[in-house]
Amino acid sequence: MSALSHDVDAVVLDIEGTTSATGFVVDVLYPYSRSRFAALLTERGDDPEVARAVGQVRELTGEPDADAERVEKVLNGWLDEDRKATPLKTLQGIIWSEGFARGDLVSHFYPDVLPALRRWHAAGIALHVYSSGSVAAQRAWFASSPEGDLLPLVGGLYDTENAGPKQEADSYRRITAALTVPADRTLFLSDRPGELDAARAAGWRTVGVRRPGEPYYEQGVGDHPEAGAFDEITLSTRSTK
Hints:
Number of domains: 2
Oligomer: single chain
CATH architecture of the largest domain: 3-Layer(aba) Sandwich
CATH superfamily of the largest domain: HAD superfamily/HAD-like
Number of strands: 8
Largest sheet: 6 strands, parallel
Distance between the termini: 15 Å
Order of helices and strands: EEHHHHHHEHEHEHEEE
């Protein structure tokens, strides 16, 4: 069996740079959220999810009295740094979810991705998502694809809040416990070597997805098996044998 052929029960997918172009997120979604932070913070600051995220911003900055204007400035700074801060991702997720629901936004997938996901799902392989984007953003992303609602293809959705940081092995162990699938029967697909290293440290199988034009392309995927597209990866599961 080649390094790109695996007999697994579950596949966990990264989004940015793996299923979808980072450029779309940075050039379309980031400006969309930036233009709407102020209204969200001032008009809906009492919403429980917004208030919780604002409290997390204040805690992370050590500024317990930060007002909406200051919180917006912090969020925009984190956006400029591409910082994977949980409250930033939570508030982006709220904004993006509403944008997708209104039809302002349609998600992006590389052309090789959806046929592979449908093929793997039909073969009985469980598909899950682990992204730095919030669960709300992930749900909206898969529900609003150019080919319609893809949520029936995916099961568990995991982010930095319900699983933990993506470059820590314990985060992957938490997902294993939640999925009740053995670690060595789980395959992780990502473009980031630090994430692949953490997943492997937790006992998962890994394939690095390396697409030209993506931020991590030149860095490579370390010593992990490498694929340039999903159609280079062959998967099977016990249930299909």
